[in-house]
Amino acid sequence: MYNRGIRGATTVTRNEEQEILQATAGLLKEIVNRNEIVPEDIASVWITVTPDLDATFPARAIRGLSGWDMVPLMCSTEIPVKGGLPKCIRLLIHVNTTKGQREMKHVYLNEAKSLRPDLSASNS
Known about the structure:
CATH class: Alpha Beta
EC number: 5.4.99.5
Number of strands: 5
Radius of gyration: 14 Å
Keywords: Amino-acid biosynthesis, Aromatic amino acid biosynthesis, Isomerase
Order of helices and strands: EHEHEEEH
Low-confidence stretches: none
CATH architecture: 2-Layer Sandwich
Catalytic activity: chorismate = prephenate
InterPro entries: Chorismate_mutase_AroH, RutC-like_sf
Organism: Paenibacillus macerans (Bacillus macerans)
């Protein structure tokens, strides 16, 4: 058994609570589905947002999902790098699995596909 990281990112169009929560939950569900994992497999989830997203804690979206109440979650703000992708939500899921690193399916949605086109193309 290994602890592997699965990355994901998405964007929203507005700094609004419901949009942030829906985008976060949608990204998480897509990562979970593509990687065939369940909350019991998850060691922790780190969620970051760009500084222009401060309407809510995105962890609230995950905490509200059935079975996710015991998964440790951490939210933080990304470093505000000039020219960085705005209104971006990123997830790093630490999963216990027997799969190898290359078997992990990273998910990039919406404008975040531009962050890792090499991974986005193979996981569309």
